[in-house]
Amino acid sequence: MPTAIVTGGNSGIGRSISVALAKSGFDIGFTWHSEEERAEEAAQEIIEAGARAMHSQVDLHDVDAGLRVFEDMVEVLGEIDVLVNNAGYGSSTPIVEMELDEFRGVVDVDLIAPFTLMKAAARRMIDQGRGGRIVNITSVHEHIPKIGSGPYVAAKHGLGGLTKVAALELAEHGITVNAVAPGQIATRMTGQEDQEPDPSEGIPLGRAGKADEIASAVAWLASPGASYVTGESIVIDGGLRHISAEHQ
């Protein structure tokens, strides 16, 4: 079976992506930062979908550790066909109050770690000689700013740009590189984990999104049907990005 590696795969969007890819026929390796019990539950869900599952704990602030875990997973799984850079977090400190370490921590996880894993995955895919897929989970804030989220917005803008450059550089090897940019999704990050999305007057579709709706887009990008799509950022935000600034 082809294989996919997903960072931050034990809960929320990452778990939904891992399960969706398993149902699409991929063996899955995923990383997690905390809560081993949730990782075991996610692995069991992947196995029930008919795929192999392996997982490893890693703190992606240590980008070298993340790279070692990735290489170990590829060795065990035997190959790498899809990489999904999903792990990430944000900050709510205003720029004028933010210490450099806080800024750097967000950027390390949200941009530097994805860069190192993209590079490693692309090299493996080139050596394998049959192409591959890289999907970076950015954010609607790859495209629009958000007050109080300086490092997060900077990192997601950066990852969006890196996605486009990588798509151009890797096209000759049959490797597509795309971003999926979620808006407000009902997960732990937004305080709506494991429940129906809350109604929201600030979103044109009137609600937050579901993790499965993001996972479906990633599974499509990993499918043969998306073989001619590269360098794109697919925004899944219920129309939020198109509200004019004065109405936000």
TrEMBL record:
Belongs to the short-chain dehydrogenases/reductases (SDR) family. Keywords: Oxidoreductase. This is Uncharacterized oxidoreductase YohF. PANTHER family: 3-OXOACYL-(ACYL-CARRIER-PROTEIN) REDUCTASE, 3-OXOACYL-[ACYL-CARRIER-PROTEIN] REDUCTASE FABG. It comes from the Bacteria. InterPro entries: NAD(P)-bd_dom_sf, Sc_DH/Rdtase_CS, SDR, SDR_fam. The keyword Oxidoreductase applies. GO terms for molecular function: oxidoreductase activity. Signal peptide: none annotated. SUPFAM superfamilies: NAD(P)-binding Rossmann-fold domains. The keyword Oxidoreductase applies.
